[in-house]
Automatic annotation (TrEMBL), chains A, B:
<dbReference type="GO" id="GO:0003700">
    <property type="term" value="F:DNA-binding transcription factor activity"/>
</dbReference>
<protein>
    <submittedName>
        <fullName>GntR family transcriptional regulator</fullName>
    </submittedName>
</protein>
<keyword id="KW-0805">Transcription regulation</keyword>
<dbReference type="InterPro" id="IPR000524">
    <property type="entry name" value="Tscrpt_reg_HTH_GntR"/>
</dbReference>
<keyword id="KW-0238">DNA-binding</keyword>
<dbReference type="InterPro" id="IPR036390">
    <property type="entry name" value="WH_DNA-bd_sf"/>
</dbReference>
<dbReference type="Pfam" id="PF00392">
    <property type="entry name" value="GntR"/>
</dbReference>
<dbReference type="InterPro" id="IPR011711">
    <property type="entry name" value="GntR_C"/>
</dbReference>
<dbReference type="InterPro" id="IPR008920">
    <property type="entry name" value="TF_FadR/GntR_C"/>
</dbReference>
<dbReference type="Pfam" id="PF07729">
    <property type="entry name" value="FCD"/>
</dbReference>
<keyword id="KW-0804">Transcription</keyword>
<dbReference type="InterPro" id="IPR036388">
    <property type="entry name" value="WH-like_DNA-bd_sf"/>
</dbReference>
<feature type="domain" description="HTH gntR-type">
    <location>
        <begin position="1"/>
        <end position="69"/>
    </location>
</feature>
<dbReference type="GO" id="GO:0003677">
    <property type="term" value="F:DNA binding"/>
</dbReference>
Amino acid sequence: MAVTDEAIEKIKDMIVSGALRPGDRLPKESELAADLGLSRNSLREAVRALSLIRILDVRQGDGTYVTSLDPQLLLEALSFVVDFHRDDTVLEFLAVRRILEPAATAMAASRISEQQLDALGAQLDKLGDSPSVEELVAADLDFHRGIVQSSGNSVLCSLMDGLSGPTTRARIWRGLTQEDAVSRTLHEHRAILAALRDRDTEAARSWATVHIASVEQWLRSSL
Amino acid sequence: MAVTDEAIEKIKDMIVSGALRPGDRLPKESELAADLGLSRNSLREAVRALSLIRILDVRQGDGTYVTSLDPQLLLEALSFVVDFHRDDTVLEFLAVRRILEPAATAMAASRISEQQLDALGAQLDKLGDSPSVEELVAADLDFHRGIVQSSGNSVLCSLMDGLSGPTTRARIWRGLTQEDAVSRTLHEHRAILAALRDRDTEAARSWATVHIASVEQWLRSSL
DNA sequence: TGTGCTGAGACATCGGACGTCTCAGCACAG
DNA sequence: CTGTGCTGAGACGTCCGATGTCTCAGCACA
């Protein structure tokens, strides 16, 4: 195995074993390189790789630190990966979302706070009836993220964020807005919100399913 | 932004835009470095980072290639990230699995081939009644992977693989095997298989839910 | 025709030099 | 005494050039 790969493993082990804890600072590059028995250049490749997936945080002029290792942070890397997928696998991602989103929405129905409900309502009101594509994409993202956050599972939240990130959604919406989908989407959002307000778990789940399924159906017919 | 980060973005763009396709070979390091306007060392950091998450495949003495970009390959990186999570978030990962696994099992019920069913049955028979921990972990992984593969959604399959990889499962099983969980698990596996044989979507979904929930319950009580 | 050698090309690794950035600590003005 | 601004040490950022190692295509020979 290449020395850089070894270094990646060793740093990983140091963190997993607890020798390095979240927020800890690593020895300076030259020291760490000496400890692990490789050159600074090779070590830097390892550090760079770990920093791309948000394990390490390098601050020029300061030092290198272990990140908080929050699921939220680590799963962010997922969206980077998802960006590489082409249209033919978008459907599969959407199918996964169709499984997760209704479940998350149902979970939220029994846990969401009045405050959150009001925030979601205000957001829908602010959007109006004929938003631009960018506004709609942003609002759609915010709306669903707000709900999933209320599910109380941060892993689930980050996963959904990664799976249906801006890029994916934009790609879908680019075509979708040409139909009557805009008003239907807004209507469905309101229905979901109403179900949440009623604390109606099953209604929330069903509306979320309908919501995703309608997108999926459109996408399937247009590919 | 650092030159290396720019390079990562540029290489990503080249792939996403289609200038570089899966399987394509990149220009040699020195050339690419010159094209992107940075040194070979810095470029190498970018390449290493992208190879860690399976976007690029570097072969010493040959060249650097774009991988197949299969969802399966890319989501492999997920398990690397999951390894960093500590016990307190394992429950959240399990909760996500509790959502996905029943859905995947239900999907498999209507699509799985006779051949696959026989393979799963043979695997269960081979395991016997009192397997070792390692055998059980491996068998458990294989069993569920086999089912999820039959769901026909490769993204779902890779995602599940990443979320409940060897490390996570081993961690859970280490404690779980001390109880009567072994025989109960084997029994549940057989029940799931029977439901699949009957093409009984709902029974399959329910057994899968029960299966995960029992693990979750044990885990929750022992933390 | 098949085997084995060989050299070109590409990645692997290293060590050192220099630039840039951050932060703590000191000096000075208010 | 307090707050501002400078300054220098330390750490990361970047680059260069040299050398080692590996892969593969192509040639020579049996």
